[in-house]
Design brief:
Layout (H helix, E strand, L loop, with lengths): L1 E7 L3 H15 L4 E5 L3 H7 L5 H9 L2 E6 L11 H8 L4 E8 L2 E8 L9 E3 L4 E3 L5 H17 L4 E5 L5 H16 L4 E5 H10 L6 E4 L1 H11 L10 E5 L4 E5 L16 H13 L3 H16 L13 H17 L4
Parallel strand pairs: 1-2, 1-3, 3-12, 5-10, 8-9, 8-10
Antiparallel strand pairs: 4-5, 4-11, 6-7, 11-12
Helix pairs in contact: 1-9, 1-11, 5-6, 7-8, 9-10, 10-11
Bound molecules: 1,4-dihydronicotinamide adenine dinucleotide and magnesium ion.
Length: 326
C-alpha cells in the first residue's frame, strides 16, 4: 500500500503528521511517501509542483493531503485545483453528520462554472457553465451508488427552473438513479441551502454541480461544528485524494492551535476507500470518545494543542481497537 502524503502549507504541516500517525497505526504495512508541493516550495524554488510530483501522485493507492496557500497572484495557479484536474478527481465527497442526521454531499469537481471557459472584455465578463453528458453521468452514477449502499434516497439539487444546463443535469441524474433502482427526490439549490440547516434529517445523499456543491457544503459545515472538523474525499477512477475542507489558516499557523480532527477524519475516509471500513469506523469512534471526554482545541473552546489532541485520539483508538470492536 502506497500512501502519498502532502502536508502543504500553514497548518497543513501541523495537522497532517497527526493524521498520518493515526493512519500508520491502522495500516502498519503501508508505505508513506512525503511530497513537498505548494506555496512554500514556490517561494523557495519558483515551482509549486512538478511533473515528477504528478507521476508520484498517480502511482499512489491514495493521497493524504493537508492544505495549500493560494496567493491572490494572477501568475500563480492553485496547486489543489491542478491536482484535481490532472488526476481527474471528479467526485468531491463531503460527509456531514450529527446526532440525528448523516448527509453525504456529492459535488461534481471538474466542470460547471469552474470549467475555466471565461472571457473578460471591456464592458462585460463571461463565465461559461459547461456540463457534459460524460461529466453528469459519472457524478450521477457515483452518487446513486452511494445512495444505494445506504438504502437511501438520492436528492438532486439544481436550479432547473431557470438553467437549461440544470435541466440536462437533472434528467441524467434521474436516469442514473432509476437504472440502479434508487429512490430520488429533488430540491432547488437556494431552497436546500436553508432547508438543510432547518431539517438536516431529511437528507442522505445529495448530488449537485460544482459551484452549487461548493456553496452547499460550506453551508452544511454549520451543522457539524465548523471547519476544524470537516473532511473531504476527491475521487476519480483509480485515483483518490483525502483532505480537510479547511485551508492553510495562516492566521493560526505555527501556534499549535489547529484542530487536527478534519485531517484525521480525512484519514478515516481514506481507510474506507481502501476497503478498511471497520478501521475507518474505529477512527471515527475514537474521535467521538475524545470529544465527549472534553478534549478539544481552542476553535472548539478547549485548550489542547494540535499533537496533544492527536495523542488523545490515538489513545482512544487503541482502546477501541482492543475492545469489542476489534
Ligand atoms: P481557512 O480554512 O484556511 O481558514 C478560515 C478560518 O478558519 C481561519 O480563521 C482559520 O484559523 C480557521 N480554521 C481553519 N482550519 C482550522 C483548524 N483546523 N483548526 C482551527 N481553526 C481553523 O480559509 P482561508 O483563510 O480562506 O484561506 C487561507 C489559505 O488557504 C488561502 O491561501 C486559501 O487559498 C487556502 N485554501 C486552501 C484550500 C485547500 O488546500 N484545499 C481550501 C481552502 C483555502
Ligand atoms: Mg469552499
Amino acid at each position: 500500500m502506497r500512501v502519498v502524503v502532502v502536508e502543504g502549507d500553514g497548518i497543513g504541516k501541523e495537522v497532517v503528521p497527526v493524521a498520518q500517525k493515526i493512519l500508520a497505526r491502522c495500516l502498519p504495512d503501508a508505505e508513506f511517501y512525503p511530497l513537498e508541493v505548494g506555496y512554500g516550495r514556490w517561494e523557495r524554488t519558483g515551482s509549486a509542483i512538478g511533473d515528477d510530483d504528478f507521476v508520484a501522485l498517480k502511482a499512489a493507492d491514495a493521497v493524504l493531503f493537508g492544505a495549500v496557500t493560494t496567493p491572490p497572484d494572477p501568475c500563480y495557479r492553485s496547486v489543489i485545483v491542478r491536482i484535481r484536474q490532472e488526476l481527474d478527481l471528479y467526485a468531491n465527497v463531503r460527509p456531514v453528520f450529527g446526532k440525528d442526521f448523516s448527509i453525504t454531499i456529492v459535488r461534481e469537481n471538474t466542470e460547471g462554472l469552474y470549467a475555466g471557459v471565461e472571457t473578460v472584455e471591456e464592458d462585460r465578463a463571461t463565465t461559461l457553465r459547461v456540463l457534459s453528458r460524460k461529466g453528469c453521468t459519472r457524478i450521477a452514477r457515483f452518487a446513486a451508488e452511494r445512495a444505494k449502499e445506504r438504502d437511501a434516497a438520492l436528492t438532486i439539487a439544481h436550479k432547473a427552473n431557470v438553467l437549461k444546463s440544470d435541466t440536462f443535469f437533472r434528467t441524467i441524474c434521474i436516469k442514473e438513479a432509476e437504472a440502479l433502482g434508487v429512490r430520488w427526490n429533488e430540491a432547488y439549490i437556494d431552497a436546500i441551502c436553508l432547508d438543510i440547516l432547518v431539517h438536516p434529517g431529511r437528507y442522505s445523499v445529495i448530488v449537485t454541480t460544482n459551484v452549487f456543491g461548493d456553496i452547499l457544503s460550506d453551508v452544511a459545515a454549520y451543522l457539524s461544528g465548523g471547519l476544524g472538523l470537516l473532511p473531504s474525499a476527491n475521487i476519480g477512477d483509480g485515483h483518490a485524494l483525502f483532505e480537510p475542507v479547511h485551508g492553510s489558516a495562516p492566521d493560526i499557523a505555527g501556534q499549535d492551535r489547529a484542530n487536527p480532527i478534519a485531517a484525521i477524519r480525512s484519514a478515516a475516509l481514506l481507510l474506507a476507500y481502501l476497503g478498511e471500513t471497520e478501521l475507518s469506523s474505529a477512527v471515527e469512534d475514537a474521535i467521538g470518545m475524545t470529544l465527549s471526554d472534553g478534549y478539544a482545541t481552542p476553535d472548539l473552546g478547549g485548550n489542547c494543542g494540535t499533537s496533544e489532541l492527536g495523542a488523545h485520539v490515538e489513545a482512544a483508538l487503541c482502546r477501541v481497537l482492543s475492545g469489542p470492536h476489534a
